[in-house]
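Let us practice reading a record.
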Amino acid sequence: MTKSEIFTAAWELAERGVTDFGGSKKEYFAEALKIVHADIAAMENVNENQERQSLLAGILVNAGKAESKGANIDMAKVVSFVRQARTNKAYTSMDTIRKAAIHFKNKAA
């Protein structure tokens, strides 16, 4: 979302405040901007969580495929990594997960 779209959404929200409670848009704008910003941050968090879950599922699938092709993979360690990444998001960065996903995709190929 561009800055212009963010400010437009905040002004529209402030206008609804004027309609519902009276006053001027300026009185509501700062709080409306905070609300719009929080909504955007929440959406970005949801998108990152969806990407994280998708990559982790891919790691499990591709590690399983690689193991069935005879690759020397300790599936217990892979499962442990995935569980850790799902439960402790601060510990496992998205960059680490992406690298692991690429690694196991290449092994499965």
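A brief commentary: The chain has one domain: 3-108.
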